[in-house]
Predict the structure.
Amino acid sequence: MIEQPKIVKICDIKDETPNAKTFFFEYMGHYDPGQFVMVWIPLNDEKPFTLSYINRNIAGITVLKRGNFTKTLHTKKIGDQIGIRGPYGRGYSLIKGNAATCIVGGGIGMASIACLADKQENATIVQGSRTMPELLFRHRYKEMRLCTDDGSFGYKGTTVDLLRELVGKHDYQKIYACGPEKMLYKVYELCNEHHIECEVSIERYIKCGFGICGQCDCSGQRICIDGPVFNSKDLKDMPDFGKTEITKSGKRISL
Ligand SMILES: Cc1cc2nc3c(=O)[nH]c(=O)nc-3n(C[C@H](O)[C@H](O)[C@H](O)COP(=O)(O)OP(=O)(O)OC[C@H]3O[C@@H](n4cnc5c(N)ncnc54)[C@H](O)[C@@H]3O)c2cc1C
Ligand code: FES
């Protein structure tokens, strides 16, 4: 049964990059890093976002300005109201103890993986973007490896280039990643090559968010309820991963 969105007031807004803002609101529920909520703007639409911050009863979503919905959200002010339902889906699974892990965020994908990076001990955090101003949460973590495609900050190259170097030097037990699907696919291939377990968060067009419409199918897995986080074993049986997706009008297209 569809859950009614809970109406919440935006209690703070933070500019993260020239095109990304974090909106904070009161949040009382349970949340596993990597799960998502559906955000409703009355008379506009309802769209999926991962919680990028959670602290006591306050949560945040970090939103990149793209089309109609996100541009409208970016006009909201402190005190304005939005609707939230969820959380939905399956998040990342944390490793306890001293195992070395690596957490990779490409572009706005860093928002999905940020709460995991807050919790997972001993993780190397890799964040990459095309250019320096797009780097997210640069000062949030004690140690973070940063890279830019154009070399304007940190390592010059992609997150996958940097990860390849790190994998050669560290004995990672697991690699977590969120970002563009082409990047995720390369991370998955690199992990297979080195026999490292991986977990990636996949994006598909989400309509219902709780498993009834089939819009978010990826090789028989519903991203909204079976994912959005999938591990190496799941991905092996998902030939659509990195290859095809369903558009909002229901057509399957190549990625
Ligand atoms: C599980 C999940 C978590 C996400 N978390 C974040 C996040 O933390 N921060 C963030 O900035 N973005 C996140 N997104 C993407 C976000 O939902 C889209 O950027 C947003 O819906 C764009 O809407 P728009 O109207 O502004 O843009 P549009 O012009 O409608 O679309 C721009 C692009 O956004 C994507 N998109 C649009 N509508 C949807 C939808 N209903 N479901 C999935 N993708 C859509 C499409 O790839 C499209 O090409 C997440 C998506 C998923 C599936
Ligand atoms: S969005 Fe409807 S089943 Fe996933």
The domain at 6-88 is CATH 2.40.30.10 (Elongation Factor Tu (Ef-tu); domain 3). The first helix runs from residue 68 to 74. The chain has three domains: 6-88, 92-201, 204-226+238-255.
